[in-house]
Specification:
Number of helices: 7
Distance between the termini: 81 Å
Mean pLDDT: 80
Low-confidence stretches: none
Structural class: mainly alpha
Number of strands: 0
Strand content: under 5%
Helix content: 55-70%
Shape: elongated
Number of domains: 2
Order of helices and strands: HHHHHHH
């Protein structure tokens, strides 16, 4: 009986120590506000897409994660927001000098005209830029 009581005491002590160290908050997720500018790492395409999704999520008043989870669901409002967000991100990347002016307009045309599911899936070829 003393051994069992000692084990429960040790377990309670360990739980108490972990809680004191912040274990109660472990696993909490804090989603970034998509309306506040962020710096993204990665290549230009990744930065443009992440910024574009942020802009779209801000426009829709939801988190970037919530927007991404609903991308497969047909919605004209989401499609318009995503296109507008991507266009804004291309403009910003061009202003920063990350996208040359020669490529910026074909990329904008691609964003305006390509079916959104193809844009999302990434099934775009070099010919799509100038086609």
């Amino acid at each position: 009986m003393k051994v069992l009581a000692s084990l429960f005491g040790a377990a309670a002590l360990l739980v108490g120590v972990e809680l004191a160290k912040g274990a109660a908050h472990t696993g909490e997720v804090k989603l970034a506000d998509p309306c506040h500018p962020r710096l993204f790492s990665g290549d230009v395409v990744q930065r443009v897409v992440l910024a574009g999704v942020d802009h779209a999520a801000c426009r829709l008043h939801e988190s970037r994660e919530a927007l991404v989870l609903t991308l497969g669901t047909p919605s004209k409002r989401r499609e318009e927001a995503l296109r507008a967000g991507l266009l804004r991100a291309v403009d910003e990347a061009q202003e920063r000098g990350e996208i040359p002016g020669l490529l910026a307009e074909p990329i904008r045309k691609l964003i305006r005209t390509t079916p959104i599911d193809k844009l999302i899936a990434g099934g775009i070829s070099f010919g799509d830029l100038f086609g």
